[in-house]
Amino acid sequence: MIAYTGHSTYSADFPPTFITVSSDNPIANVSVVEKRVENLKKVGVKVEYRRYENAGHGFGTGVGTDAEGWIDHAVDFWERSMVK
Questions:
Q1: Among 18, 62, 67, 68, which is disulfide-ready with 1 (CB 3.0 to 4.6 Å)?
Q2: E strands within 1-84?
Q3: Considering only CA atoms, which of 7, 9, 79 is closest in space to residue 43?
């Protein structure tokens, strides 16, 4: 799981990736995060992306914001993505 990363390296060998960010994050640029999502998908990496609007930076569990419940989505994605 990746939250608001600007990390720029990627390849088709990356594992399935869950990415989340809030558009009102004053530190992490949403367009940089979305470019990463686009790049990962372009090389065939399975990606689930959740963008929130009012969770700010470092929203943790998201309680009290529109990101509340993001951990459940991430766990669901992880379970669906596990190799069996």
A1: 18
A2: 2-3, 17-22, 47-52
A3: 9
pTM exceeding 0.70 = yes
Q: How far is CA 50 from CA 5, 81, 83, 84, in A?
A: 13, 16, 22, 25
CB 83 within 8 Å of CB 48: no
Separation of alpha carbons 17 and 69, rounded Å? 17
Question: With contact defined as beta carbons under 8 Å apart, do 57 and 30 qualify?
Answer: no
Q: List, for residues 5-63, the tens digit of each pLDDT value.
A: 767 888 999 989 999 999 999 998 899 999 999 999 999 999 999 999 999 998 999 99
- Say whether 18 sits in a helix, a strand or coil: strand
